[in-house]
Amino acid sequence: MSTMTRRTVLRAMAAAPAMYLGIPKFAHAAEFNFKYANNLPITHPLNVRSQEAVDRIKRESNGRLDITIFPNNQLGGDTDMLSQVRNGGIELFTPSALVIATVVPVAAINAVGFAFANYDQVWQAMDGPLGAHVREAIGRANLYAFEKMWDNGFRQTTTSNRPVTSAADLDGTKIRVPVSPLSISMFKALSASPASLQFSEVYSALQTRIVDAQENPLPIIQAAKLYEVQKFCSLTNHIWDGYWFIANGRAFKRLPPDLQRLWETAFNEAGMKQRDDLKTMNQSIQADLESKGLKFNTTRPDSFQTALRKAGFYTEWKTKFGDQAWGLLEAVSGKLA
Ligand code: X2X
Fold first, then answer.
1. Per-residue pLDDT reduced to its tens digit, 44-80
2. If you take atom 1 of ligand 1, which residue's CA is the nearest one?
């Protein structure tokens, strides 16, 4: 390149807006490049609101904190992502309470069958003393839990062969559940035949009939297109499930206080919006899934609860979680065991 040409090119580069040249808008390289991984398709509100938070953090930190999102199990299934966030391979992850419970057992407490009757109870517990109790336990595992939990939803049961109207219909049903001791225990107590699989494998397991059934909140059934491989959707509302936004503990401590405050504000506020998104979606989602061919039915919650009680499910999990955590749960749910 002649001097003349090089000078011309350099002048052109200096004059051109950065975006035309593919140069990052922020003059300095980020001080912190973090990775955030999750298990959901990009259309799910968890990813939509996370992207907004990540954009905000980059903007308001003047590019100092740059977070890249890896959605949809791109970095592996939940078990992989959980070990990566613990060893620092990734800095952020949103495990469901059921999944983080494989490392922090008390975190599954919000998923005790039929504990919460509605969202008022859910947020009273999770934004209150029960949530604080779980966050502390997460902290002891050298992870940092952001204050606001994100919504996954009340879990519903889908099947390929028959609708579930009462507990008896689950008898012997091969049902996929998350990698979660509580889910296995609960569906065994209901006489089903549960198998733990990573979420990344659910669609194909249903398609190839390795299992006949699965259970997830409606927004996930929609986003992951599970209606393509399931026929019936029974509104069992058996578990309320949420996502903990967690960070690797050392990554959190590495951030200066102003960036800690910024990402706390950004992720907690985004989480509140994500809760609202699901609330709005829940008003129309059944109609949408019906139009895609899924057949809905309601169920009798008392038949499930009675079966769980008879099988000793509540007393077993009260012992496992301990009196303190159980007391915090029952302060909201009313007596369970
Ligand atoms: O794996 C599931 O079923 C999911 C997506 O709901 C969780 O993250 C627990």
1. 999 999 999 999 999 999 999 999 999 999 999 999 9
2. 199
Cα 323 to ligand 1 centre (Å): 27
Q: How confident is the model at residue 263 (pLDDT cuts 50, 70, 90)?
A: very high
Our CA angle for 319, 321, 322, nearest 5°, is: 65
249 vs 42, 109, 138, CA distance in Å? 26, 22, 10
Task: For ligand 1, atom 9, name the residue with the nearest CA.
Answer: 96
Distance 11 CA to ligand 1 centre (A): 53
Report the run of H or E that residue 130 belongs to, with start and end: helix 129-140
- Give distance in angstroms: CA of 169 to centre of ligand 1: 23
pTM of the model: 0.91
- Residues framing ligand 1 (Cβ under 6 A): 39, 96, 98-99, 152, 178, 199, 216, 220, 241
Number of neighbouring beta carbons within 10 Å of residue 82:
22
Q: What percent of the chain has pLDDT over 90?
A: 91
CB atoms within 10 A of CB 196: 15
Please state the separation of Cα 298 from the chain's center in Å.
25
Instruction: Write the residue with the smallest CA distance to atom 8 of ligand 1.
Output: 96
Instruction: Give the tokens for residue 27.
Output: 């003059």
The CATH class that applies to domain 27-333 reads: alpha beta
How long a stretch of residues is the chain? 337
Q: How far is the CA of 241 from the centre of ligand 1 (A)?
A: 9
Classify residue 144 by burial, with Cβ atoms within 10 Å: 0-12, 13-18, 19+.
Answer: buried
Q: In the chain, what are the domain boundaries?
A: 27-333
